[in-house]
Write a structure and sequence with these properties.
With about 100 residues, the protein is mainly beta. It is built from one helix and ten strands, in the order ββββαββββββ. Strands 4-3-9-7-8 form a five-stranded mixed beta sheet, with helices on one face. The chain has a three-stranded mixed beta sheet with strand order 6-5-10, with no helix packed on it. The chain has a two-stranded antiparallel sheet with strand order 1-2. β3 and β4 form a beta hairpin. The radius of gyration is 14 Å and the shape is globular. The structure holds FE2/S2 (inorganic) cluster. FE2/S2 (inorganic) cluster (FES) binds next to loops.
Length: about 100
């Protein structure tokens, strides 16, 4: 896992509670409460969805909840902005294809 542990402005990374998330069927560690996107990047996951028009991999852009480039399917709900949604233990996160599909 790769993270910035010492930042000149933000200071040192505080110790966090480790939880587990499942991303496209693969279990990954995360820090409770951090944005899902942070956990994904720390685990080397850079693609959040497949674009609607060109069907190409797409990753985050703004990182502050404004552009929707980071949307993924989380616990069965499509179009979740991963840059502003906190991690919870046991979350199931999937790369979203286009507009995504609602489950059941
Ligand atoms: S990266 Fe823009 S809304 Fe998440």
């Amino acid at each position: 896992m790769s993270r910035i542990e010492h930042h000149v402005i933000l200071g040192d990374l505080e110790p966090g509670t480790q939880v587990w998330i499942t991303v496209d069927g693969k279990k990954m560690p995360a820090r409770a409460g951090e944005p899902i996107l942070s956990a994904l990047l720390a685990n080397g996951v850079k693609v959040q969805n497949i674009s609607i028009k060109k069907h190409e991999p797409r990753g985050y852009f703004c990182g502050i909840g404004r552009c929707t480039n980071c949307v993924m399917t989380v616990n069965g709900d499509p179009n979740v902005r991963t840059c502003v949604t906190p991690v919870e233990d046991g979350m199931v996160i999937e790369t979203q294809d286009g507009l995504g599909k609602w489950e059941g």
